[in-house]
Amino acid sequence: MTRCMQLWGFLWLAVLAAPAAMAQEQDMPWPDDVRASAARISAVLREAASLPPHDVAGRVSQGEAFDAALDEMAKLASADLVAQARAQEYRSEAAKLLLIAADRRDAPDRYDTLRERYLTAVAEPAARAPAAPPLSAAQATEAYRLAWEYWLLRPTLAGQAPQANQRMVDALVAIDNPASVQAVMMVVEASASDKAFPGRARAFRQHDLLQILGRMPGENSLQALMRSVALINSQPASLTNEKSGAPMAQPDYLNAATYAERLLTDAEHFGTASRWRAVLNRVPEKNGATADNDLLRKARAFYRDNPVGTDAGKTPQN
To answer: Beta-carbon neighbour count of residue 91 at 10 Å?
Structure first.
């Protein structure tokens, strides 16, 4: 039985590796100026992640730096490079950033629409706890995907509407394109850098990013979810008070591994159980005890213990 499982494991890895190997052969190297531009943008993201939430001036400055760097990359985005980027969007930060830069250059109205509707406006502003307006089906489409990814990546606007981040989450989940995983991972990596400010805002941001991955079941999302948990867990367990600088205990509900397990088993009632069950059935079990395998082991055990059932809930809109 063990030998059979090993053979199935090797077969699964070969199936995954074959397309990746073919893609590697087909990938063209990026020009030096494109790689340098992508590196500058990544540096801005890490610098922005280092700022405490109350540093409004710093966030404004980093937001402007992010836009300026994207504008410079847009000047490099020829038709040939954009076509190359589309083929590599799933696996290349340079490709992802170049596509966003070109799309923002060519269709700025979509970016302005999202800012004006969801980021700088709120529904019922006189309410005690105003929130960004509900997500419109018109903006939950592939045409707006890169614009949503831009706002996910961009340093937070000063005075950004409450729950704007949740609208970004809901929109990318509704569009459900695996290419968005690359953008999510860029934000995860910036938030998990040594420079990142270890406050509650970062923890909640990471919570949102895990939610995107958990609500888009697929092999890419599964790998990204496990990598995200490893990156987040490499940070100190304690948080820092954003005003006093004093250490704070991290609440259990912000534990990345616990939340990832809840997402894989649909304990959050997003209606993803059948899709995650199918994904986990396609990914063979491996021998050995690693943190990644521990997360998968718990998810598999849940579905073995619950062989019959339907997706438990619906996607929340608030």
So the answer is: 16
What's the pTM value of the predicted model, to 2 decimals? 0.85
pLDDT tens across the length of the chain (318 residues): 444 444 444 444 444 443 443 334 457 899 999 999 999 999 999 999 999 888 999 999 999 999 999 999 999 999 999 999 999 999 999 999 999 999 999 999 999 999 999 998 776 666 555 678 889 999 999 999 999 999 999 999 988 887 899 999 999 999 999 999 999 999 999 999 988 988 888 889 999 999 999 999 999 999 999 999 999 988 776 666 666 666 666 667 788 999 999 999 999 999 999 999 999 999 877 655 555 678 999 999 999 998 865 454 443 333
